[in-house]
Amino acid sequence: MGSHSSSSIFEYLKNVGAHMLDELYTHPPTCLVVFRELPELAKHIVMRLLFIEQPIPKSIVSGWVEKGSSALLNDSCKALTVLRIWHSTDTNVSGGSWSLNKKYQESIRISLFGGGKPLLGDLGIVTNDKCSKSVDFLKSYASERWDSYPVDALSIAQQEVLQHMRELGLAYQRKRTAPRFYVTPLALDVAGGHTNFLESKSGGGGPQLGVIPTGVSKSDSSDTNRMFAQISVSSSSDIGYILLETNFRLYAYTDSPLRTALLSLFSKIRARFPNLVVADITRDSVREALIRGITANQILSFLTSNAHPDMLLNNPILPPTLTDQIRLWELERDRFVFQEGCLYEQFSRNTDFELVRDYAKNIGVLLWENPERRLMVVSKSGHEDVRKFWKHKRPS
């Protein structure tokens, strides 16, 4: 609704008497319309007072805004007062208090959170037509039919994709030649980033942090690695939702169980709120990710591609202390290099040991040597060549 329409509504309501406003505020839809046209700060104030029954001191309300925003607060208070959404009361508190209109408070609760009577009520059947249908029949018919889409509107390539969607359970088509198809709830879950279908299989009643991909065994690390890399790339087109601090604290503004599960791959979840996840990136959490086959570059790429718009203003985007530490944690696992080899020992003379050692070194298969003890290790691939050489040169 434009600003002209909003001002017209306010001008009309300003001239309505108090009794008429109270009557209007007994209807939840009317209260919702008025709420939507309020200034943003006024909406915030109403939401904070929605479930508070007693008057609130004006000094407390003034503390909800910054000192430089007093003009916005005055405008919002004036709008709420003129529309009789709240009124000033004289209490024992110095400066007075604000009290929300009880009728408006009750109606806006119903409008925002459900309850109350239907807006139109039960109109019943207003015609004598023998073929007329009841409301219950129409609701049942609509729920059975659901929303279908014509196949003829699809191109040949799209129709081929539709058949793949049928096989995956993402679409329903009675048969290949059927003229219409339906999108299944599974497709909606996948498109929306939700994992309710996975949670139901896990036996949990609510969102689980370890649904997928957490809890994957080491044998499945390649699948986890591939999936993590794909999601980190594909999610780059979405609006970023991750904020990082230099103390390795992570804030993710999301309510998606799938995104939360991805974060739990390399971070320690500390708290979950309706639209916020707080986590810490620790040495142990990163090591768990590395064990699953996720590399430091993939973790940093995921954090960069999903960075909050405020972080995109930084150069570099991620804190250097964080990127350096994650790479150092990865290097900790690279201190030991494991190679298969064969041990050669029990040389009777130094000349024999040096002969075989020099041969193995020349062909590039010598891994380790200890001349004092006449020991050496050659690679498994070069063992056969060294064995044949020693068998041919070995004194009888």
From TrEMBL:
Residues 324-391 form the Transcription factor Tfb2 C-terminal domain. One of its GO terms (molecular function) is ATPase activator activity. Component of the general transcription and DNA repair factor IIH (TFIIH) core complex which is involved in general and transcription-coupled nucleotide excision repair (NER) of damaged DNA. The lineage of its organism: Eukaryota, Metazoa, Spiralia, Lophotrochozoa, Platyhelminthes. Keywords: DNA damage, DNA repair, Nucleus, Transcription, Transcription regulation. GO terms for cellular component: transcription factor TFIIH core complex; transcription factor TFIIH holo complex. It comes from the Eukaryota. One of its GO terms (biological process) is transcription by RNA polymerase II. Component of the 7-subunit TFIIH core complex composed of XPB/ERCC3, XPD/ERCC2, GTF2H1, GTF2H2, GTF2H3, GTF2H4 and GTF2H5, which is active in NER. The core complex associates with the 3-subunit CDK-activating kinase (CAK) module composed of CCNH/cyclin H, CDK7 and MNAT1 to form the 10-subunit holoenzyme (holo-TFIIH) active in transcription. Its main location: nucleus. Belongs to the TFB2 family. It is found in: Nucleus. It holds the Pfam family Tfb2_C. This is General transcription factor IIH subunit 4. It comes from Schistosoma mekongi (Parasitic worm).
